[in-house]
């Protein structure tokens, strides 16, 4: 049997801070190739990606897994009580950057897939898509894999993304969709002047303050059947002005909106521009607006795939998972254009934190969940 804990520890020892691979995908490629998977590196613009398939290409029943081996920086290494890339096992936990997000998930589905095809070769195919660009710009990772798959006539019938999905208890939550995300950058340009003569200046700080106050007071919606209400947060306001007696010429602000299926990135981009233009017209301060959509909201309606995952989770953990669309973005936002996709993984309490760690027992449980999903899917 393939030990998912040992494999997770090996992956943690690969210092794969985006965009570096640190040997993680090389390790997985060798492991999967030895198990009979046809492996292809799909690197693009310096980003490493791995496609692995067991079984015939184009089979009508092709189960896919998706995940990433890149991790966020360790931050202050001196604040860690263990080596960030040591993969140490202590007190029932496996420690290290990526232990939770999400080298354990990749190890669990790789181990489950390897053992499954060795023990009960299915009538179908299993595909693993693993990227090194989920924590970064996400432009040359899963997107590159899906682009390559389209050209190579490779396809997944359904896909499970192994991101950590449980807030506190193993098995309590799975994701059947995600909110969208759009960021907005505002640059207000007024007229610099002396604070003693404000009538001879146009203060961009006041205009920006008025804009962000107005934006945060708006109720975007009340939520939908599967989504919470959309939210807007101000993330920064900057002037770079060290003087207390000068009204500056410019001021900037940034906001982020996490939105549900009542909106699109385009509709919210237009709304942000309208709000900024209204404040500009009223204050006489020019406000330039730029936006970037990092993902649209999406939903995989409850059905065969989500039911399959929920049954496996309950069988292996004793917990009935809640079907949720909460949290941030994931690469499922790209996979959803290819095939139905859901997400299930570990408890994510320590992801991106100092002393990131995961309960060792949870890694074994996760492999068992993935194994049961494969068994039932191909039954």
Helix and strand topology:
Elements: H1 4-12, H2 24-34, E1 38-41, E2 49-54, E3 62-68, E4 89-90, E5 93-95, H3 99-119, E6 125-131, H4 142-152, E7 158-161, E8 173-175, E9 177-178, E10 180-189, E11 193-194, H5 204-217, E12 231-238, E13 246-247, E14 250-259, H6 265-283, E15 286-295, E16 298-299, H7 304-317, E17 322-324, H8 332-335, E18 341-343, E19 357-359, H9 360-377
Parallel strand pairs: 3-6, 3-7, 7-18, 8-17
Antiparallel strand pairs: 1-2, 2-6, 4-5, 5-19, 9-16, 10-14, 10-15, 11-13, 12-14
Would you mind describing this structure in some detail?
By secondary structure, this protein is an alpha+beta fold. Helix content is 32%, strand content 24%. The chain contains 9 helices and 19 strands. The strands form 6 sheets. The chain has a 6-stranded mixed β-sheet with strand order 1-2-6-3-7-18, with helices on both faces. α1 packs across α3 and α7 packs across α9 (360-377). The longest helix is centred in the N-terminal third of the chain and has 21 residues, at 99-119. The model has no long low-confidence stretch (mean pLDDT 97).
Short structural description:
The chain has helices at 4-12, 24-34, 99-119, 142-152, 204-217, 265-283, 304-317, 332-335, 360-377, and strands at 38-41, 49-54, 62-68, 89-90, 93-95, 125-131, 158-161, 173-175, 177-178, 180-189, 193-194, 231-238, 246-247, 250-259, 286-295, 298-299, 322-324, 341-343, 357-359. The protein has 379 residues and is α+β, with helices and mostly antiparallel strands.
Could you list the spans in which at least 5 consecutive residues all have pLDDT below 50?
A: none
Beta strand count: 19
Bin the strand percentage.
15-25%
Major pleated sheet: 6 strands, mixed
What class, by secondary structure content?
A: alpha+beta
Continuous helix count: 9
- SSE string, helices as H and strands as E: HHEEEEEHEHEEEEEHEEEHEEHEHEEH
Distance between the termini: 21 Å
